[in-house]
Write a structure and sequence with these properties.
Elements (H helix, E strand, L loop, with lengths): L2 E4 L2 E4 L4 E7 L9 E6 L6 E6 L5 E2 L8 E6 L4 E6 L8 E7 L10 E6 L1
Length: 113
């Protein structure tokens, strides 16, 4: 399985970005997917998850601002990020939630104040 995240960039606080992650292989539609982020000198954290039925979950830090979605026909998971804050600055990755594979390169999101 290969995971390729894209869509990051530089945005001002309050702005929006939409991340995409394409997943190779046929296991995508059967697995819960997650978006993770890792800020400098911090541990990687899960910021959004979606199961195979489309049920979603978010930590309080991003609830109401981030929305995860998936397109099983395209083997792609998305992360819509609104009202971005400087503390959202991090490298963002996607992976399977319960059977994580090798991490891809991720995509850098930088939020300026």
């Amino acid at each position: 399985v290969q995971l390729q995240a894209s869509g990051g960039g530089l945005v001002q606080a309050g702005g929006s970005l939409r991340l995409s992650c394409s997943v190779s292989g046929s296991i995508f539609r059967f697995n819960a997917m997650g978006w993770y982020r890792q800020a400098p000198e911090k541990q990687r954290e899960l910021v959004a998850s979606i199961d195979s039925s489309g049920n979603t979950n978010y930590p309080d830090s991003v609830k109401g601002r981030f929305t995860i979605s998936r397109d099983n026909a395209k083997n792609t998971v998305y992360l819509q990020m609104n009202s971005l804050k400087p503390e959202d600055t991090a490298v963002y990755y996607c992976n399977l939630v319960f059977f994580p594979h090798a991490w891809g390169q991720g995509t850098l999101v930088t939020v300026s104040s």
